[in-house]
């Protein structure tokens, strides 16, 4: 094993050894992103979707201080049931969680780190962190952007929620040299909706195109990942006015309550979900499944 702290599930280890496609999945979306039991149901459905499309899922988490690439259904149930009691683990948390033998739910950042350690190149999720609105005062910029700048994993998401400043997020990614690709679109999708008004760097229309570009990046030894933004399917997208109303309301509450640091994103996500009822949860589930399907196809194309 290349890393003393890393454990691959037998299924993931076999697939990687045989050069078969593997897709990484994060666990903060399970413990902090959705309520129980829908979080566990969704995590298992996402894994099944990846299998149905010919790839092996590797749900990533920290369990008892071990970095796991490939969780069992029991481990997924444990993370989902404990919910926000599990530490939301970003890059700065890894050394302490490992040393203390604790559990951690991996964000986009730590999922990329552990995927890269394991040799997994493609990762599917819902939304990434970014530059928060008002970051010029709060300095709240997600570690996800720094990780995209240095760790060689392709992240397939549905864009970012407009709890963030999407324009500043794109500027930051440009500075850091991260390619932002729209899958079948020229426009950055905004998670619940297909439109943000901001353009992406490049549009690509097939998994093979995505795989070629990422291969080229790796072959040139250019550090960092690639961000693929895949719009929510039309049938599940939400009306922009409803979602924007909820987001504005949630941002105002966060400001009044003085929410900051790592609590900020989970607070905003939970409030947006409550303010929009079950609709946003249903949309969230569908966009993750949509990203899982694309990721399985890209992982297969990466193996060819
Ligand atoms: N955005 C979402 N859903 C999520 C997250 C972000 O729409 O579940 C989670 C991801 O795990 C992401 C993390 O990596 O929040 C970012 O947190 P922060 O903004 O504190 O870096
Ligand atoms: Mn933050």
Q: What count of helical segments does DSSP give? A: 13
Cα(first) to Cα(last) distance is 25 Å
| Low-confidence region ranges | none
Q: Please identify, by name, the CATH architecture.
A: 3-Layer(aba) Sandwich
CATH class: Alpha Beta
What string, H for helix and E for strand, traces the elements in order?
Answer: EHEHHEEHEHEHEHHEHEEHEHHH
Largest sheet: 11 strands, mixed
Sheet-strand content, in percent, reads: 5-15%
Q: How many domains make up the 3D coordinates?
A: 1
Tell me, what's the shape? globular
Cα gyration radius (Å): 18 Å
Helical fraction equals 40-55%
Strand tally is: 11
Bound molecules: pseudouridine-5'-monophosphate, manganese (II) ion
Q: Can you tell me about this structure?
A:
- This protein has 304 residues and is an alpha/beta fold.
- The chain has a single domain (2-303), classed as Indigoidine synthase fold (3-Layer(aba) Sandwich), CATH 3.40.1790.10.
- 48% of the residues lie in helices and 14% in strands.
- It contains 13 helices and eleven strands.
- It has helices spanning 10-17, 28-31, 38-52, 73-82, 94-100, 108-118, 135-138, 143-150, 166-175, 207-219, 240-257, 264-275, 278-303; strands at 6-8, 22-25, 56-63, 66-69, 87-89, 104-106, 122-124, 154-157, 180-183, 202-204, 226-229.
- Strands 1, 2, 3, 4, 5, 6, 7, 8, 9, 10 and 11 form an eleven-stranded mixed β-sheet that branches.
- A hairpin with a 2-residue loop joins β3 and β4.
- The radius of gyration is 18 Å and the shape is globular.
- It binds pseudouridine-5'-monophosphate (PSU) and manganese (II) ion.
- Manganese (II) ion is lined by residues 140, 142, 264.
């Amino acid at each position: 094993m290349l890393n003393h702290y890393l454990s691959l599930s037998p299924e993931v280890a076999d697939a990687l050894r045989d050069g078969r496609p593997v897709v990484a999945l994060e666990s903060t979306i399970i413990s902090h992103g959705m309520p129980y039991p829908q979080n566990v149901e969704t995590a298992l459905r996402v894994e099944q979707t990846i299998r149905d499309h010919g790839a092996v899922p590797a749900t990533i988490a920290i369990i008892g201080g071990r970095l796991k690439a490939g969780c069992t259904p029991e481990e997924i149930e444990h993370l989902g049931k404990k919910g926000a009691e599990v530490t939301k683990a970003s890059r700065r948390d890894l050394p302490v969680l490992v040393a203390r033998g604790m559990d951690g739910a991996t964000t986009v950042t730590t999922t990329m780190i552990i995927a890269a350690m394991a040799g997994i190149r493609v990762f599917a999720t819902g939304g990434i962190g970014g530059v928060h609105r008002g970051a010029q005062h709060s300095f709240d910029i997600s570690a996800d952007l720094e990780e995209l700048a240095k760790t060689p994993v392709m992240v397939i998401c549905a864009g970012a929620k407009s709890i963030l400043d999407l324009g500043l997020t794109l500027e930051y990614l440009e500075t850091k040299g991260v390619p932002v690709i729209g899958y079948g679109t020229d426009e950055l999708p905004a998670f619940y909706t297909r439109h943000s008004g901001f353009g992406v760097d490049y549009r690509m229309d097939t998994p093979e195109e995505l795989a070629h570009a990422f291969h080229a990046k790796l072959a040139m030894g250019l550090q960092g990942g690639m961000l693929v933004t895949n719009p929510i399917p039309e049938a599940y997208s939400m009306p922009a006015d409803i979602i924007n109303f909820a987001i504005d309301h949630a941002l105002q509450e966060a400001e009044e309550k003085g929410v900051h640091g790592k609590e900020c994103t989970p607070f905003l996500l939970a409030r947006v979900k409550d303010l929009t009822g079950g609709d946003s949860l249903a949309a969230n589930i569908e966009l993750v499944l949509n990203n899982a399907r694309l990721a399985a196809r890209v992982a297969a194309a990466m193996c060819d």
